[in-house]
Design goal:
Length: about 350
């Protein structure tokens, strides 16, 4: 197949990102996080996010093209996240991509953000279909069997909150900075995971469904009991609560991954392959637990580098590239979709 060079644009949550991907090479991947803008509000404020995307996108794209050393003339298409996500942000990206497509004549390709995450192991490791995927981020948590760029079978997932959201909530409760995942992981390093016995929701139920909302309540109660006793949290309390929380999440993800892998391997015994993506896949305890599981089950394990696990535009460019290879593209009627299941 002919070499393809794609510009990717991502703005569905709180990262403004642009990237240039040529086949499986990431020539540039620029990400402007908005964490500081939302810090004082304790969560992502959609209007602030949309405005910041609109302000930063042009610059982000220029930088990605410059780093990649390409101009629009070198590109084959423009791929943009068209959903799911915060609608104002998705619209900013889609409008920008439409403008560029109209001005340059380059094909426009709308990409599902979740497909971007789910195809990342193909970009980074040239993983062939089919494979089992655990997509685990701030907004999502699901097991998918990926059989093609637009063929995903969901075999289980969270019935309420996503683990990343629980990490973020836990950080807020403990007075640790956002985004919560990295700060809880850091605090957990010096903590005692045994000190607070937290629930492992649905662990003993059959199937691959998960639940994390009860865990958020449990960590709230555990914190309140320490605060009631001592009047506040010491850094050791923060570390122990973080470690106990991370252990509960990790136990659930690993046990449910074992079940999902059993189900997948029963269907695809000749192709043992398991990949993870999404922001929580950046967590070392989660990665190491899943790696050990795959060693035990003699399954290939793909964990993309951290910068391609969290939100980025290289995954969007690559998912666009697969759509283009399949002969698919959109036109200027492409719409932004707040909800868009795979
Ligand atoms: O995929 P992502 O960048 O955005 C979407 O949600 O689509 O994921 C962000 C989420 C946040 O909730 C963040 O706290 C979590 O991923 N996260 C982590 C880690 N790094 C990011 N969670 C646990 N451990 C980490 N090291
Ligand atoms: Zn994401």
């Amino acid at each position: 197949t002919r070499s393809l060079t794609i510009l990717g644009i991502e703005s569905s949550c709180d990262d403004t990102a642009a990237a240039v991907v040529r086949d499986c090479d990431v020539l540039a991947s620029v990400v402007y996080g908005q964490t500081a803008l939302h810090a004082e509000f304790g969560g992502v404020v959609p209007e602030i996010a949309a405005r910041a995307h609109a302000e930063k996108l042009d610059h982000c794209i220029e930088e990605a093209l410059a780093v990649a050393g390409v101009t629009f003339a070198d590109l084959d298409a423009i791929a943009v996240t068209a959903g799911p996500g915060l609608i104002g942000g998705v619209l900013s990206g889609v409008m920008c991509a439409k403008g560029l497509s109209a001005a340059t004549g380059l094909p426009l390709i709308g990409v599902n953000h979740l497909a971007g995450h789910a195809l990342t192991p193909r970009l980074t490791d040239q993983l062939t279909y089919p494979y089992l995927m655990l997509l685990v981020s701030g907004g999502h948590c699901q097991f998918l069997i990926a059989a093609g760029h637009d063929s995903f079978q969901r075999i289980g997932g969270t019935i309420d909150d996503a683990p990343g959201e629980a990490f973020d909530k836990t950080a807020r409760l403990l007075g640790l900075p956002q985004p919560g995942g990295p700060s809880v992981e850091k605090a957990a390093k010096t903590g005692d995971a045994q000190r607070f016995p937290l629930p492992r929701p649905l662990l003993n139920q059959p199937g691959c469904d998960m639940s994390f909302s009860g865990l958020k309540t449990a960590i709230l109660r555990a914190r309140d009991s320490v605060v009631a006793e001592k009047g506040g949290l010491t850094s050791q309390d923060q570390a122990d609560l973080s470690a106990s929380f991370q252990a509960a999440i990790t136990d659930v993800l690993i046990e449910k991954s074992r079940r999902a892998l059993d189900a997948y391997l029963a269907l695809n015994p000749e192709k043992p392959a398991f990949a993870i993506a999404g922001g929580v896949a950046a967590n070392t305890a989660v990665r190491e637990g899943l790696m050990a599981l795959c060693v035990e089950l003699e399954t290939d394990f793909v964990a993309p580098p951290l910068r391609l696990c969290t939100d980025n535009a290289a995954m969007i460019a690559y998912a666009g590239l697969e759509r283009m290879q399949a002969g698919e593209q959109d036109d200027l009627t492409l719409s932004a979709r707040p909800r868009w299941p795979l």
